[in-house]
Amino acid sequence: MRISELRVGLRSVNVEGKITDISDVRRVTTRRGEESRVATATLVDDTGSVKLTLWNENIDAVKVGNVVKIENGYVTSFRGEIQLNVGRFGRLAVLR
């Protein structure tokens, strides 16, 4: 799937792209009361860009310039912007 095809509510999303930006890491308390780290990356392919939410170990796995593949992700809207999420059942793999 291409980034330009992403729509809010899509599930089982598989997409590849290049990380062009990663925000500062924020500490948050989840609904379960757990302390977690979260950051937002920009994922780009030749059709567009999307915000990619990174949690905990995924933050440490990527850096700007990496090409990554998201498998079984899902798409939401946060503050009016489309966001791609790896989620509990998804997978982020660094290709290069």
Keywords:
single chain; about 100 residues; mainly beta; OB fold (Dihydrolipoamide Acetyltransferase, E2P); five-stranded mixed barrel; about 55% strand
Tell me about this structure:
The chain is mainly β and 96 residues long. Helices cover 5% and strands 56% of the residues. It has one helix spanning 57-61; strands at 13-22, 26-29, 35-45, 48-55, 67-78, 81-85, 91-94.
Using the coordinates shown, work out and report the CATH topology. OB fold (Dihydrolipoamide Acetyltransferase, E2P)
**Rg (CA only):** 13 Å
The total domain count is 1
Indicate the percent of residues in helices.
under 10%
Strand content: over 45%
* SSE order: EEEEHEEE
The dominant shape is: globular
- Strands side by side in the biggest sheet: 1-3-4-6-5
Task: Provide the CATH top-level class.
Answer: Mainly Beta
The CATH homologous superfamily is termed Nucleic acid-binding proteins
Describe the structure concisely:
The chain is mostly beta strands. It has 1 helix and 7 strands.
Walk me through the topology.
Layout: E1 13-22, E2 26-29, E3 35-45, E4 48-55, H1 57-61, E5 67-78, E6 81-85, E7 91-94
Parallel strand pairs: 4-6
Antiparallel strand pairs: 1-3, 1-5, 2-3, 3-4, 5-6, 5-7
